[in-house]
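Re: your question from the hallway

Yes, I did run it. Sequences:
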Amino acid sequence: MFMSVFARRWTRGLALLAALGASPAWAVEEQELKAAIVFNLLLFVEWPVDAVAASTVSMVLCVSPSNALNAPLKALQGRPVRSQLLDVRDLPAGASRAACHAVYLDAADSARLAAAKPDQVSMALVISDDVDSPLPQAAIVLRHVGGRIGFDVNLEAARQARLQFSSKLLRLARRVNDR
Amino acid sequence: MAGASFAQDLASVPLDQLLDLEVTAASKFALRLSESASSATVIGADEIRALGYRTLGDALQSVRGLVVSSDRTYSYLGVRGYATAGDYNTRILLLIDGNRVNDTVFDQAFLGTEFPLDIDLVERIEFIPGQGSAVHGGNALFGVVNVVTRRAGARSGGDVSVIAGSGTWRQLRMSATQPIGEQGLLLASANKRRAGGSDVTYSSLDSDPNGGTSQRTDHERGEQLYLKYQQAEVTATLVHADRIKGATAVPGAVFGDTSNVYRDAITLADATLAHRIDAANLWKLRVYAGRYRFDGDYMVDYPPLTLNRDWAASRWWGLETNLYTQHFADHKLVVGLDLQNSPRSDQGNVDVDPDPAVYLDDHRSSSRRSVFAEDQWALSPRLSITAGLRYDRISDGATSSEFSPRLALISRPHDDVVLKLIHGRAFRAPNAYERYYAIEGTVPYKGNANLENERVSGTEAVLEYRPSTSSRWLVSAYGNRAEKLLVQTVDPADGALVFNNLASMRTRGLELEFERVWSTGARLRSNYSVQSARNQSDDSEANRSVLRLGKLALVLPVASGWTAGTQTLLVSRRGDVAGYGVTHLTLSRAWAGDRSHVSFSLYDVFDRRPDDPGGDSVLQPVTPQDGRSWRVELKLAF
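Structure:
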C-alpha cells in the first residue's frame, strides 16, 4: 500500500541521508527501530525445551502481513539468534500459533486475537506495541518513552507461557509488572 | 553501506543502545533536510567528552574552516574567511534545538562561557555552513550553529559533578531526571561556577606603570539553570544563565581596573507541541519568549574617575508553526510560519558614580513576520533536489521585506560518491545597537536611521567519498559575495562613530577533510582549509587576507577503559596577530553505563601562548590567550 511503498523508498533514502550526513544518523525511522528492538529482545528470553513444536534450528517469529513491522522484520530473515536462525513468518488470522516461538502484534492484531482461543497463543512470547489496551498474554509491550522506544514487561504473562527472562532484560525495561 | 538495508545494520546495535536512539520526529526531520543539503559537521557528546571541550567555542574550533578567537570576555567565530573585529557573531545564527538564540539588540551568538547552556547538556552540535536564511530567517549569512540538547533519560536518577581548573576555576553541577505521571519526564540541571582568572600582560601597553599587566581582572562567576519537561507530544524548556565577567583591558577605560565588568543575563522559555496527524504528516506548534539583559561597567577617567555603564535590555516573544508532509510521492515538504514581537529593544548609557548622568536612554520595539517552504524532491534513487524559499517582513523603525532562496542538487553517481551543488542567499537586518546607539562625549557615537539589510549570496560544491563505512573524504570549494555590510567608521563631518552599509566582500575557499573510525572505538578527523577574503570597496593588497587552518583530532581507547583525546590546531597569521599551533590532551574514563565519568585535560600542552585579535587595532591589537592550563572533572551518577 501507500505506506509500504513509502517505507521502502525512504529506507533507501535514509541510507542516502545517512551517507550524506557527517556522522551516523542519530534519528531513525520508528518501524526500523522497533524491528531491531524486537529482534534483540529475543536474545534475552529462554523458551522451555519441550514447549514449542517448531524446529530447533529456527527461531520462529510470526507477524501478520498487514502489520507495519512485517517488512522491517522480514529484512532480518536468517540472522542468528544465539544458536538458532531467525525465521520470520506471516501469521494468518485464526491459524494455530503453536509453531511460533514469538509473535509480534500491534493494536489491530490484538483486537482479532482477543476473540481467539487461549491454547493458540500459549507458549509463545507475545510482544505488542498496543500500550492503551495491552493483551493479558503480552509479556513485553513496546512503548514511546520521551522520544525513544522502551518496553514494559508483564511477568505474569511470561510465567503463563513458561518463559524465562534474563535479569538484563528486566533491568532495561521501563516497568516490570508482576500481578 | 552499499546495498545493505538500514534495518539490518540497526539490528546489530546492542539493545541498551537501541533503547537510547531517538525516533525521527519531524522537528528533527526538518533540520536533517537542511543538513543533508549542505556539508555539515556534527560533533557528538562522546567527542565533546573525549576531547575535553569546555564550551561551544572549544567544540567549534575543531570544525573545518572555522576559527574561534577570544578577547577574554566573549568568543568570536570566524567562518569561511569572514571575521571582523567588533562583530559579536551577528553573521552566524545560533540555534538551540532549532530555535533562534541571537538577542534582538546586539544579534549576538554566545559561544564561550556566556553561552547559556551547560556543555554537559549538549547531545550534539551541528555546524551547517552556507546561507541558512531560506529556512531560518535573518543572521544566517555564513553559517548556522545548532545545539541539540539531551533528551531526559528514560529512568529517574541524577548526577553531581565537580570541576576544577587553572585560574582557580571551581564549578559544581547537579542534574536529575524525574518521571512525572504516566508519560512525563522532567530533566533539571543547575550549575554554579567561580574563577579568579589569571594576570594578563598586554605587550602593547608596556609603558603603563604596571608593565601592561592587568591583575585580578580576569575573574568570572556565573550560574545556569535548565529545565525540560517532555510528555507525549509536548516539550517545554526553560534556560536561564547569568554571568559576570571581569574585563582585563577595555579600550577607552582605565587599564587594569577591577570595576571593568560585563554582565550578561539571558532567559529563554518555550513550549512545543509536535502532533503526528497521520503516518505522512506532522504538525508542530511552538510558543516562545526570551529576555536578555546586558550591563557593561567601565571605569573611565574623563577626568574625574567615573564609573560609566552601558546597558541593554531586550524582550521578545513569538509563535511559530510548521507542517511536515510526505503526502506527495517522492517529496518531503515543510511549510512554516513565524511571528515574533520584540516589545523591548532598549539600550542606554549612564554615569553611575560619582556624578550620575544619563547619556542615552533609547527604547525601541520591532516585529517580524515570516513564512517559508522547503521541499526535498527525490528525482531518482541517485538524484535529489532541495529548494527552499523564505519571506521575511521586518518592522524595526523601517520596514523591509526579504526573499531568501536556497537550491541544492545532490547526486550519488556511484555508491561511494556524493556530489552536492548548493546556492543560497541570506540577509541580516541592522540591530538596535547599529541603528540607535548614540552618545556625545570624547568619543561620540551616533545612530543611523537609514541602514539597509546586509546580503550574502554564496555557492558551494562538495565532493564526498566513502570507500567504506569507516572512512570518509570530503572536498569543498565555495565562494561568497557579501554586500552592504555594516561597518562602523568615523564621520569626518563631526568625528562621530557611525554605522553605514559600506563594505562589500568576496570570500573564496577550499576545504579538505578526512575522517576514519576503527572498530576499537578510535577515531580520527583531520581537515585543512585555505580561505581568501577580499574587500571589494577597496581592492588593494592591504585589504586582502588569506587564512590557512589545519586541525587534527584523535580519540584513542587506551588501557582498562580509559580514553585519550588529543587535538592540534594550526592557524596562520591574521593581520597583526602571529600564526600559532596548539595541542590539547584529555584522558577520560566512564562507568555506570556512561552516566559517571572522570576526565583530566591539559590545554596548550606545549605552552605556546597564542594571541587572538584584540578589541582595537591601535590601542589593543592583540589579546593574549592562556598558556598551558589544566582541568579536572568528576561526575558521579546516583
